[in-house]
Amino acid sequence: MALTVAGSDSGGGAGVQADIKTMEAHGVFATSALTAVTAQNTRGVERSHVLPTAEIDAQIDAVLDDFEVGAIKTGMLATGEVVELVADRLAAYDGSIVIDPVMVATSGDRLLEPEAEAAYEALIGEATVVTPNADEAAVLTGTDPEDADDAREAGEALVGMGAEAALLKGGHLPTEDVQDVLVTDAGSRVFEHARVDTEATHGSGCTLGSAIAARLARGEALDGAVAGALDFMERAVRYPLAVGEGPGSIHHLAALRNRAAREPTAEEVQEIVERFVAADLRGLVPEVGLNVVGATPYAEGVSETAAVEGRITKTMSGIAPNRGVRFGASSHVARFLLSAREFAPDLRYAVNCRFDEDVEGALDALDAPVTEFDRAAEPEDVKAKEGSTMGWGARQAFDVAETPAAVIDRGEVGKEAIVKLVAPDPETLIERTLTVHGALDETV
Questions:
Q1: Closest CA to 23 of 246, 218, 214
Q2: Nearest to 143 by CA among 121, 181, 117, 151
Q3: Other beta carbons within 10 Å of 84
Q4: Interatomic CA distance for residues 329 and 307, integer angstroms
Q5: 198 touches 9 (CB < 8 A)
Q6: DSSP 8-state symbol, 283
Q7: 163-201 pLDDT, tens per residue?
Q8: Distance between CA 398 and CA 373 in Å, rounded?
Q9: Contact assessment for residue 322 and residue 308, using Cβ atoms and an 8 Å cutoff
Q10: What is the pLDDT of residue 110?
Q11: What angle do CA 410, 415, 420 make, to 5 degrees?
């Protein structure tokens, strides 16, 4: 169980609304104490009304008097009076405390009175972890982070104010990858994530803080809670929701819905396999075997893709899967599909097929874009890294204006030529594969 002490966001992407969605997505019952009411949407904040401190205090009382709260997370506190009230209440609380020093909204609208900034030191002194971005860290510590070393310095200053730990969020740092720096008395750790090219980041700070709080409330250690929360938040940012007329909203429930889609995804892969077996696709089975891969809607890794264990191979009477469908069963095709999804997130299914001149001619029947990548252009450092070729090849093939339906890998010495068909749904993958198979029969 966790408590969020923060302002509301009528647009639903940040504030108490984001906190509750995130905590519940982690399986933690969420309670709340509202500090302010804002009129805002995806374009910005239009109005803000701070509640009287007595009303805020009463809400905190009501929750702590009745619930066993494992962690408290703070967000928008708006005024010095509210900051002081919350600091006093937290001083008497013995659970985990996450302080998200909300000062400015993603839209640029200010959410904290300038005179309230000085009151934050007492609040930081109560924190299990404080989670400022670069701009907030500059206000709180006087250090303006430009890289991980600067962030570490700012984190050390926050720990010096009494916080047990400080997580300096790296989204605003001018680095190629996002570098989030966790600082404690014992040292520091840098968490690196690929930077997601999106403007729909409204509420990302609230989401990260409440994810950490939820994990701490479940009893996780701080290091693991931060790592898990960062993974959770990256997925929420990578798969935003196109809501409103502004940049949109991060997807607070992406991880939850992704877990819920595991069984249906595996069932769909099984259905595709059965259709392929019934159609006897011997002419498309490569020497390495054919495999069908399905990714969950918000998949981030191979473990979130379902495929045939042992692949599908030729038999005396047709083709058959060696074993059943399970998650993590594919390596090459799964990594290819995941890399393709960086450019076309709606792609969820793929199959690898034999490739030669006859198959190349049959691909014309698709009436859809076909691309390829050249292994001769593969950088040596990519070749040297086990399992990296498929990701590299997909990035070459999908960095195009229109999403291809098939990607050709002509192979090289010791590497079989393959064509991979991709699709957003099972029926489209089946249709494309059977179309190529039918056209191949006509040319042979």
A1: 214
A2: 151
A3: 17
A4: 5
A5: no
A6: G
A7: 999 999 987 676 778 889 999 999 999 998 888 888 888
A8: 9
A9: yes
A10: 55
A11: 50
**Residue in the block written with tokens 């042979």:** 444
How many angstroms separate the CA atoms of 76 and 99, rounded? 10
Tokens (6 digits) for 317: 């009477």
Radius of gyration of the CA atoms of the chain, in A: 26
Q: pTM of whole model > 0.85? A: yes
**Which residues are registered as beta bridge partners of 181?**
168, 190
Q: How far apart are CA 304 and CA 261, in angstroms?
A: 10
Contact 205, 212 (CB under 8 A): no
Structural tokens at position 246:
């502004």
Mean pLDDT of 264-289: 96
CA distances from 208 to 12, 141, 232 (A): 15, 21, 8
Q: Residues 198, 233: contact at Cβ < 8 Å? A: no
What per-residue string of b and e applies to 258-297 under the rule 16 or more CB within 10 Å gives b? beebeeebbebbbbbbebbeebebebbbbeebbbbbbbbb
- What is the amino acid identity at position 206? C
Tokens matching residue 304: 């979130």
For residue 320 the two structure tokens come to 């058959």
Token reading at 90: 């937290």
For 263, the token pair is 């069984």
Q: How far apart are the first and last CA of the chain?
A: 65
Beta bridge partners of 419: 353, 408
Q: Structure tokens of 355? A: 């490739």
Domains of the chain: 2-253 (3.40.1190.20), 261-443 (3.40.225.10)
